[in-house]
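1st attempt posting a full record on here, be nice pls
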Amino acid sequence: MASSTTVPLGFHYETKYVVLSYLGLLSQEKLQEQHPSSPQGVQQDTVSQSLDQEVLLKVKTEIEEELKSLDKEISEAFASTGFDRHTSPVFSPANPDSSVEDCLAHLGEKAAQELRAPLLGALQTLLSRPVTYQAYRECTLETTVHASGWNKILVPLILLRQMLLELTKRGQEPLGALLQFGVTFLEDHAAEYIIQQGGWGTVFNLESEEECPTGTAEDSNDIYILPSDGSTHVSPPESPTTATASWQAESLPVSLSASQSWHTESLPGLGTQEKEDKEEGVSCLN
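the predicted structure (as tokens):
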């Protein structure tokens, strides 16, 4: 499965890293039990906790391998692409104690609170169907209708994270397929917005009154266990980030030019764009 939208190669690398790193936060979480009371009581909880730890270890190992593969791909292609991780705010943040995935997790926690009901509905629908890109795309687009600004970007990541956990618990190995789902969706439906906002590095500046967490993020944006109280709406910054990257907006193809700048409150590609899905009806998982 490949994206139907042409994006700068540096943006592609950063998007793949963002998806992998965001999914990798699962292995750092302290999962809370999501099972109803049962006659088995503590015994059931103990078995579940053991299963969760096995799942997280498996996910962590798989993601580490994917990140190594991406690192190798970037290094081998440097001579022809010129993409340098050291000039990318995603791979090399200005503050070494922060990371793009930690900031996204912090923002994702708020987004999951605000969009709890539509996210839960989308997840239940996805887990009840064969796992295909078409199903993921449709459910994600339907959910983003309820969001605005960068929350629209967080929706696909939040859904991917929950799908990864639940499908791995079922004994499946969904990481490869879900990684492609996320990269393809973000490049096809969100690349223009992200690039016009200043790139993925913009997430470091999204909350002017709050600092993104440093070090390991321990909070989960698991939509099953979030509190029901609301939270302050996350608005995008007034101006794009000034962090430099090895790809420049000036080199964007016509389809991603500044003349088609997206608005903050609505993403033209989200919820209205109708594309032919090459993967329609084909299951990506066994």
